[in-house]
Specification:
Radius of gyration: 17 Å
Number of helices: 7
CATH class: Alpha Beta
Shape: globular
Helix content: 25-40%
Largest sheet: 6 strands, mixed
Order of helices and strands: EEEHEEHEHHHEHEHEE
Structural class: alpha/beta
CATH topology: Rossmann fold
CATH architecture: 3-Layer(aba) Sandwich
CATH superfamily: P-loop containing nucleotide triphosphate hydrolases
Strand order of the largest sheet: 6-7-8-3-9-10
């Protein structure tokens, strides 16, 4: 599903540069759930952003399903991401002016998917929010908002799902319930998932855990 080779990324800091990733190599099998853990500032979110094509590496390659996404221009990368990836953020990132239903419907309509409306309603039902379909994000709780985000991320049946601290803004009980739902849906759809987390219990739910430290994987 994914092969990462010699991935490097650094950022400017004053007159110097900080090497965040120092040549990361990684392979992820189709259908695998992988937890990426490490101390704060270890580069977990940076690596996830690179894998999801939200940022560009200084050097190295990222192949997803045989496509080297580091060679794609912005337009092609945006299209590839919309078609093949799902992304869940800690901050939910729902469109505030759209209802829960419209947020889930949006990626389906952008790709001109048939039966988009029925699919969006079914996904909201799957995450237990059918009765909240026409509520705006401001009218939803944190747990409900993240469930909408999960439904939206899985709407196009992506080959790979990226999740960056998806329970970070939720209380412990709500976070546990929402993450159980996420793993259930990932299992049912056979979706490959890369999960960034600082929570060891959440990491244990994944089939494999890798540690990021000093710019490399342990």
């Amino acid at each position: 599903m994914m092969k990462v080779s010699a991935l490097k990324k650094s950022y400017g800091q004053g007159s110097s540069r900080v090497d965040v990733l120092k040549g990361v190599d990684l392979e992820i099998r189709e259908g695998e759930t992988l937890a990426l853990v490490g101390k704060s500032g270890s580069g977990k979110s940076t690596l996830l952003s690179l894998l999801a094509g939200l940022d560009s590496p200084d050097s190295g390659t990222i192949q997803i399903g045989g496509q080297n996404i580091t060679t794609l221009d912005e337009r092609a990368l945006t299209q590839f991401r919309a078609t093949h990836m799902g992304i869940i953020f800690q901050q939910f990132h729902l469109v505030s002016t759209l209802t829960a239903y419209e947020n889930v419907l949006l990626p389906l309509e952008l790709l001109k998917k048939p039966d988009a409306r029925d699919t969006a309603l079914k996904l909201l039902s799957d995450v237990g929010l059918k009765d909240r379909a026409h509520h705006l994000p401001s009218q939803l709780s944190g747990g409900e908002s993240q469930r909408v985000a999960i439904a939206r991320a899985l709407a196009t049946r992506p080959g790979i799902l990226f999740a960056d601290e998806p329970s970070g803004n939720l209380d412990e009980e709500t976070g546990e319930k929402v993450m159980d739902l996420l793993f259930q849906m990932v299992k049912e759809t056979g979706t490959t998932m890369v999960l960034v987390t600082h929570d060891p219990d959440l990491a244990k739910k994944c089939a494999r855990t890798i540690h990021l430290e000093h710019g490399g994987l342990l």
